[in-house]
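Quick review question:
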């Protein structure tokens, strides 16, 4: 069995169905619940100063980065980058127990994603060139290694002046503790959440953010110190996921930039500080996760950039009208920082809140790269993820099934793969630039809830969606590591939906538990051309007043 076949086998094995769940323990071993915070014991800690005020840019500006003036790269602006992307947003408390919420969403609030900063010297703050781990609880940087000015200069010589790097990794055990074999999927959603959060936070500072396409997983591991296995508990290794370069300019970069082998080996051979804290006393061995993780490793720095970057530079059309209605005007007045930091996951929805069709169209427009540039411009790929929508409570829009085709070139492919009786008509007053199509009218509240593992929240909101993703062809064409990248794209979609819900005065929730093949049957999908990888719901939240809310820091 080759690597792609192993990936497909894992995907089938980790599906839920009405009469079969993906393998899991079937209970929660509370004694071994992982510590939600990774720390490196004995590594030097550099506290970051908390921003004194909210960012001055408005929420809609998040999606049009070219209009935001660039800030100087300093330790204070680096602090803002993490504060608005990966930091704590608040603490919750109930009957003597408290837990942290973060700016970036996570499946089960378990946060398998870790972040690292690779940056040059900041003499004003006595920070040397090096690799640093971001510690969100402390809002601080832990120094993992330092290197010389000459080494740093060679590392960034191909990149625009002022550039630095942020890497993301996953601790699969954090999710597997609760979700078993399906946890690998959830880790990938969360990488996408974090990537979108980083890109939007960089936008607030007037910076560009690009995922480095031609850097392999072993190279990321060397740069971030993730291959130093004697410094980690074996079951709690961090899997290298991606590396982005952040530049304090709006200029484009070459897509094929990478690092020399000698430079990375030199950094890896330096002095490293700290040892990873132990997250759990005991572990259950999920061999299927280890196997699919190995199959998805990007082993070389070769990518078919000509093919995957077709839509890297996208002409964009803003369809948002400043006079749509009072709520739309209110969105324009929100600061980007306030929306980002107030983001929460709804645990229940009221089943009565509705939104206008113009609000509905505005939300969906943020998900289309040809309409809203950011955060989609941080990757060198066209959209592979499309939305099968279950519409419940949108004024003047009939309830039923809809399709948002995020890459309009794929409409004919989706039409050929879905039910022949679907209408594929344009909704009333839908903006011409928005590729939204009406498929079938009807009450789909019960259907949406049933497909989402019986969770009422999928049917009691304004609308919910299944993220129908081009699946088999990208994995065969570009390699098994694209299995992760397809999930990352769904996580980016989820992050934008979270923020859009907050901006519209409602709330969203990602849904990882759904019955895979019944979802496909609902839309008429019969093979692996498309697969539903993530679900989401938006609506009026029902808050739990028993919970106490405390400041993040």
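Suggested answer, residue by residue:
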């Amino acid at each position: 069995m080759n690597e792609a076949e192993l990936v497909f086998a894992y995907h089938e094995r980790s599906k839920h169905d009405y009469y079969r769940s993906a393998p899991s323990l079937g209970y929660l071993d509370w004694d071994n619940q992982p510590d939600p915070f990774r720390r490196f014991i004995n590594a030097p800690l550099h506290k970051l100063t908390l921003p004194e005020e909210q960012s001055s840019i408005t929420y809609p500006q998040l999606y049009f980065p070219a209009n935001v003036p660039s800030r100087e790269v300093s330790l204070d602006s680096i602090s803002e980058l993490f504060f608005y992307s990966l930091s704590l947003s608040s603490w919750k408390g109930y009957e003597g127990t408290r837990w942290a919420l973060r700016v970036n969403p996570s499946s089960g609030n378990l946060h398998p994603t870790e972040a690292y900063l690779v940056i040059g010297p900041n003499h004003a703050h006595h920070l040397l060139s090096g690799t640093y781990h971001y510690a969100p609880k402390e809002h601080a940087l832990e120094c993992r290694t330092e290197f010389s000015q000459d080494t740093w200069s060679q590392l960034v010589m191909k990149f625009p002046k002022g550039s630095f790097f942020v890497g993301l990794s996953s601790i699969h055990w954090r999710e597997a503790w609760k979700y078993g074999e399906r946890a690998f999927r959830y880790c990938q959603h969360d990488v996408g959440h974090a990537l979108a959060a980083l890109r939007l936070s960089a936008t607030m500072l007037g910076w560009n953010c690009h995922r480095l396409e031609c850097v392999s997983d072993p190279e990321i591991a060397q740069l971030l110190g993730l291959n130093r296995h004697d410094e980690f508990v074996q079951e709690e290794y961090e899997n290298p996921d991606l590396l982005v370069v952040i530049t304090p300019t709006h200029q484009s970069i070459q897509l094929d930039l990478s690092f020399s082998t000698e430079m990375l080996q030199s950094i890896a051979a330096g002095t490293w500080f700290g040892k990873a804290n132990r997250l759990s006393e005991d572990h259950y061995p999920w061999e299927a996760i280890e196997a699919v993780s190995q199959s998805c490793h990007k082993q070389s720095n070769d990518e078919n950039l000509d093919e995957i970057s077709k839509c890297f530079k996208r002409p964009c059309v803003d369809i948002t009208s400043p006079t749509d209605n009072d709520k739309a005007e209110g969105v324009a007045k929100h600061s980007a920082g306030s929306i980002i930091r107030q983001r929460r996951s709804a645990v229940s929805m009221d089943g009565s809140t509705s939104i206008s069709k113009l609000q509905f169209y505005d939300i969906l427009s943020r998900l289309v790269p040809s309409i809203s540039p950011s955060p989609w411009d941080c990757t060198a790929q066209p959209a592979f993820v499309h939305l099968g929508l279950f519409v419940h409570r949108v004024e003047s829009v009939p309830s039923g099934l809809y399709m948002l085709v995020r890459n309009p070139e794929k409409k004919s492919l989706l039409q050929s793969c879905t039910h022949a009786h679907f209408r594929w008509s344009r909704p009333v007053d839908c903006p011409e630039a928005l590729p939204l199509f009406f498929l079938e009218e009807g009450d789909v509240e019960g259907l949406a809830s049933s497909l989402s593992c019986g969770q009422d929240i999928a049917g009691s909101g304004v609308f919910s969606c299944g993220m129908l993703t081009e699946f088999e062809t990208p994995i065969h064409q570009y390699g098994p590591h694209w299995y992760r990248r397809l999930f990352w794209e769904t996580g980016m979609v989820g992050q934008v939906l979270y923020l859009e819900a907050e901006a519209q005065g409602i709330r969203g929730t990602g849904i990882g538990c759904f019955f895979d093949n019944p979802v496909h049957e609902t839309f008429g999908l019969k093979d692996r051309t498309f697969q539903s990888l993530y679900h989401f719901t938006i609506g009026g939240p029902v808050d739990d007043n028993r919970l106490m809310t405390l400041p993040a820091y």
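Why it works: Residues 310-327 have pLDDT under 50 and may be disordered. The domain at 326-539 is CATH 3.40.109.10 (NADH Oxidase).
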